[in-house]
Amino acid sequence: AGTGEEGCREAETSTPSSAARELINGWAYCAECILHGTPSGLDNAVSCEGGGMRLQRAGRESGAALRFEPIASLRPMTVLVTNTNVPRSTRRLVAKVRALRDAQPALTEALFGAVASVAEAFLAATASSEARLSAELPELVRINHGLLVSLGVSGAALEDVVATAAEHGLATKLTGAGGGGCAISVVGVGGAARGEASKSADAARRRLEAKGYNCHLTSVGGDGVLYHAPQAAGETAARAAPSGGLARAAAAAAAVVVAAALAAAAAARSHATA
């Protein structure tokens, strides 16, 4: 949309430099630490970089380093996001899963392993073809949600959303920490997001909104953080990335922020295990 100022046209966008993105990502991770205690860093990383991202732990032991990898083969997907408007505490839900793992370590590890297998199956499908992903994704979503239910992180409103969307042929799972918050329903992959799939999404949306939920039709794998700079008519739209001293300063600031965030996360882990 335009800025409304005379002589200006639609805002131009450009991608921040890697140093600037690292700085933004570091500050976002600090906020995650405040809100969640010991976050993985995946949410802020994928929001900053865009697309899709795979998170892996370097080892099974507690405190092992995390590795983030972009999903180069991610295919465009349309999803219906439903906000249950039920508040939830990520800290409480994480503590609940931790308590389950302490009480039933073998069963909990088996559930974690099954969740990882679902993720691997998704990666194989999206790397294969749009047709394969379209065929397999709904079942993978249903399996994933069932595993999360077994871990105890669903809730009454989320289950209502899952059941209502299923009546219209949409596979749905909770997202985020669970307990409340949002659920995502698969509408389609690529061209499959149109036609009958779109009609099903519209029907499900009307039912869900009639129940008091808020729905948003959107896509997966969009851009990450961008500069939005309104430009005067006739001006060059491109915004130069920081260079020289500015880039070095941004990189240094990012290193400080990330170090502080890691220290905060380590302190939180130490407090949680004390």
UniProtKB/TrEMBL annotation:
Record's keyword annotation contains Cell wall biogenesis/degradation: no
Keywords for the protein's UniProt record, in alphabetical order: Cytoplasm, Kinase, Magnesium, Membrane, Transferase, Transmembrane, Transmembrane helix
Molecular function in Gene Ontology: ATP binding; mevalonate kinase activity
GO CC terms in record: cytosol
Record-annotated membrane-spanning stretches: 249-268
Gene Ontology BP annotations: isopentenyl diphosphate biosynthetic process, mevalonate pathway
Domain of life of the native organism: Eukaryota
Domain named GHMP kinase C-terminal: residues: 136-213
Keyword Kinase: yes
InterPro entries: GHMP_kinase_C_dom (IPR013750), GHMP_kinase_C_sf (IPR036554), Mev_gal_kin (IPR006205), Ribosomal_Su5_D2-typ_SF (IPR020568), Ribsml_uS5_D2-typ_fold_subgr (IPR014721)
The protein, known as: GHMP kinase C-terminal domain-containing protein
Organism for this UniProt entry: Emiliania huxleyi
Lineage, top ranks: Eukaryota, Haptista, Haptophyta, Prymnesiophyceae, Isochrysidales
